[in-house]
Automatic annotation (TrEMBL):
InterPro entries: Pept_S1A_streptogrisin, Peptidase_S1_PA, Peptidase_S1_PA_chymotrypsin, Streptogrisin_prodomain, Trypsin_dom. One of its GO terms (biological process) is proteolysis. It comes from Amycolatopsis regifaucium. This is Peptidase S1. The active site is at H222 (charge relay system), D250 (charge relay system), S333 (charge relay system). Residues 214-354 form the Peptidase S1 domain. The keyword Signal applies. Pfam families: Trypsin (PF00089). Belongs to the peptidase S1 family. GO terms for molecular function: serine-type endopeptidase activity. Disulfide bonds join C202-C223, C289-C299, C327-C357. Residues 1-27 form the signal peptide. Keywords: Disulfide bond, Hydrolase, Protease, Serine protease, Signal.
Length: 389
């Protein structure tokens, strides 16, 4: 990770790539799909304390329910957010009783009489207005869909008047964060080291092409600040940073050298690769893994979207991030998150609390979490079509 300062949220510099799951519809089959990489299943199994067979069944179950939701949305049913609960049901916020019945018929679990995703996003924007210039006293804020509330994490010692104003907002919960806050943490293959010249490193993210045919790599924006030259693990020049939105958003772009090729698979750092077949914003609660140069292959689940985070040393908050329970450390930034075979995003940052993820261990440090930049938003912003395999 490229440490940006002594306080607040930490960016995990390293650009790595991965893929997530798209999905069909129906209940999970008795025999799981054989499409998953064995390393992915073993790491998921270690993280979730289940067998590799059960990990494959879980991925199939999630994939099938997500597909059911996509199919019913394609038929015009309006929904307002969805998440997997602890029992594995895909809970969907429904507009009315008729919509709820349609969701039940599709094997989904409807929820009514809640604020829902759109109202939570609006409430989160209002929270940002209340915080205003006091952003240096806040570590993060954003919706928690399952709890149907917006959670604000303030720095220890935050102004009491600010805490009272935030706590007075209906639907807002205020918590106190950790002392140091959060910090940013040849072939071009997602998950391998992205060596920044001079002196720091990230992990390689998702390659793709622009509308005019340029070969590029989507990465964390803080990894390519200053348009650095970029080398691979063998010290060979593979590209140069050409664009970044950091700190307002943590997305950036690397131009891949003409003689090099972006590959549509992720290096698990265990001698295997995972194919990238598409990209999405999978529902909250979906299982996913990430590849990174520092911690290798670690897994967890998505916990929130539309999170706003203030990183160490920054006076501007970074918006639009997703949050997960995946363990990351410095040097993992840019590292790609994948659900099944569907790309989800690139590592942005995590807590600056000295936690140790281990390497390729799967299981996470107690209470660990990380933020990532959703890849679909970065691809849309830069007009990039991801490379698939």
């Amino acid at each position: 990770m490229r440490i940006r300062g002594p306080v607040m949220l930490t960016l995990l510099s390293v650009c790595a790539g991965i893929g997530a799951i798209a999905v069909p519809a129906a209940a999970a089959p008795t025999q799981p799909s054989t499409a998953y990489d064995q390393t992915m299943l073993e790491t998921l199994a270690a993280t979730l304390r289940i067998s590799p067979l059960q990990a494959a069944q879980k991925l199939d179950h999630e994939k099938n329910l997500i597909s059911s939701l996509e199919n019913i949305r394609a038929r015009g049913l309006r929904t307002d957010g969805a998440f997997f609960d602890d029992a594995g049901a895909l809970v969907v916020n429904a507009a009315d009783a008729g919509s709820a019945q349609a969701l039940r018929s599709a094997g989904l679990t409807p929820r009514t009489a809640v604020r829902g995703e759109k109202a939570l996003d609006a409430l989160s924007a209002r929270v940002g207005d209340v915080i205003g210039a006091a952003v240096t006293q806040v570590q993060s804020w954003g919706p928690e869909l399952a709890a149907d509330q917006v959670v604000v994490t303030v720095a220890p010692g935050a102004d009491r008047a600010l805490v009272r104003r935030l706590s007075a907002l209906s639907g807002v919960t205020v918590r106190t964060g950790i002392a140091n806050g959060n910090t940013t943490q040849a072939d071009v293959i997602p998950g391998q080291i992205m060596d920044l010249d001079p002196g720091t490193n990230c992990s390689l993210g998702f390659p793709g092409t622009t509308s005019d045919g340029d070969n590029v790599l989507l990465t964390a924006g803080h990894c390519v600040e200053g348009n650095p030259d970029i080398l691979n693990r063998d010290g060979v020049h593979i590209g140069r940073g050409v664009a970044t939105e950091f700190p307002s958003a943590d997305m950036g772009l690397m131009d891949i050298d003409d003689e090099d090729t972006g590959r549509g698979y992720v290096d698990t750092r265990k001698g295997t690769t995972v194919r990238i077949t598409g990209s999405s914003k999978a529902p909250v609660g979906t299982t996913l893994c990430k590849a990174g140069n520092t911690t290798g292959w670690t897994c967890g689940k998505i916990t929130a979207y539309n999170q706003t985070v203030r990183y160490s040393g920054e006076s501007v908050a970074t918006k639009g991030l997703a949050k997960s329970t995946v363990c990351t450390e410095g040097g993992d930034s840019g590292g790609a998150y994948i659900a099944g075979n569907t790309a989800q995003g690139m590592t942005s940052g995590g807590p600056d609390d000295g936690h140790d993820c281990g390497y390729n261990q799967g299981s996470n440090a107690t209470g660990s979490y990380s933020y990532y930049q959703p890849v679909v938003d970065a691809a849309y912003n830069y007009g990039v079509t991801l490379t698939r395999s």
